[in-house]
Amino acid sequence: EGPEVADISTLYKHTGMFTYDPGFVATASCRSAITYIDGDKGILRYRGYPIEQLAKEASFIEVAYLLIYGELPTAVELTKFESTIRHHTMIKETLKNFFDGFQYDAHPMGIMVGVVGSLSAFYHDSLDINNPRHREISAHRLIAKMPTIAAASYKHNVGEPIVYPRNDLDYCENFLHMMFSNPCEEYTPDPVAVKAINTLFILHADHEQNASTSTVRLSGSSQANPFACIAAGIASLWGPSHGGANEAVLDMLNEIGDVSQIDKYIAKAKDKDDPFRLMGFGHRVYKNFDPRATLIREVCHEVLENMKDNDNPLFELALELEKVALEDEYFVERKLYPNVDFYSGIIYQALGIPTSMFTVMFAVARTVGWVAHWLEMMNDPEFRIGRPRQLYTGAPMRDYVPVAKR
Ligand code: ACO
What pTM, to 2 d.p., does this model score? Predict the structure, then answer.
């Protein structure tokens, strides 16, 4: 009949162990060999390689190979992988019809959730999740098509025709081309912009068991197909406590409006009766500093110096807010430092990428991590369906009362 109230001892009897861990702050849901994080020391490594080395020296597609296959590619392997990804960049013409069905001003993340999920209705030839080759082709398709779908979501949003991928360009250049070219004008990739996107994509590529990656794993644990699992990951990433934070940073900066208002908003962020939080500050795992933030801060300053738009008062406001918060006792005591999303939003704004696309950019990069985790899980001998338990806190057993007698 089950316990009438939350009864840990009953649950313990069935499993041998039972923990109540809201937010999973102390629970490992899996074993993984992909990404190592030490939050106290500010360490992040992909497959053992420090993020600092990868962000400065590697290309995003090289990092994608590393995350998926476990080793850095040789020159031959990299060329082959790049060519495979290029081979899959197009989307089906009929998939294009999907975009027309969305409200013209739909949020691009809403479009992403729908369109990526719909890929499972277009690629039946790679849906056998028990076939390693099918799993690999689906992984390649997802990585290759994400920038195309992301840019198409943007084009729909601004009412311009979809721009086709150009396979003579590299991954990041191609994405910028599909975003900013139009039938009247071809976008010429700006090396500073390409470098910034490459760095941001590398930094966002994986971050072990965050909410969206755990969502992908949990969805996949029921043997759902990878396109559906990645769509679930995109939905989870959209939240402002996760990938939506970079968009929320810009909304917040616009709300603050002026350097003179910073003190007022810092006070609001400290006030426990006020739900306002300083967006882009704090991290569940990094309690000293976010190593990605240190790297992207440099890129952010480089971009601001190089871009025409660098006299935008929003950037001055952002840099002043960063300074004030870093010196404020409340933020120092709680170890609330700017996270990667504080800077990524500012960089995207400087590159002319609209706010509504910020989380989409994150989704394009994180697809590589999601896919790597999904593949790792599918190859795991301990693989089983995820099924968290709960502490029941509802009513004890009671008898049904017919409606006339209530
Ligand atoms: N502004 C003001 N106060 C904050 C902030 C913030 N941004 N973040 C945390 N705090 C305070 C909390 O009120 C709490 O204070 P208390 O101890 O006096 O009650 C303390 O710091 C600890 O906060 P928690 O919410 O317990 O920290 P948690 O680890 O659960 O949350 C999170 C981490 C969600 C990132 C949080 O810091 C936050 O909401 N930040 C803003 C949103 C954001 O930038 N998210 C992006 C995360 S990075 C990413 O997804 C790539």
Answer: 0.89
Cα separation, 385 vs 378, in Å, equals 11
Mutate which of 209, 210, 238, 241 for ligand 1? The one with the most ligand atoms within 8 Å of its CB, which is: 241
Catalytic member of 204, 207, 242, 283: 283
Angle at 344 between CA 172 and CA 49, to 5 degrees: 70
Tokens of residue 215, six digits: 């969502």
ipTM over cut 0.95 = no
Active site residue 21: no
- Contacts of 40 by beta carbon, 8 Å cutoff, 6+ apart: 287, 288
Cα 259 from Cα 280, distance rounded (Å): 17
How far, in Å, is the centroid of ligand 1 from the Cα of 279? 9
pLDDT(54) > 90 = yes
Instruction: Decide if 204 is catalytic.
Output: no
Q: Which atom of ligand 1 is nearest to the CA of 210?
A: 50
Interior/surface letters 47-61, b for 16+ CB within 10 angstroms, e for the rest: bebebeebbeebbbb
- Lining ligand 1 with CB less than 6 A are 241-243, 245, 269, 277-284, 334, 336, 339-341
Give which of 342, 282, 272, 295 is closest to 314, Cα–Cα.
342
Q: Residue 1 has what pLDDT?
A: 43
Q: Which residues pair with 185 in a beta bridge?
A: 182
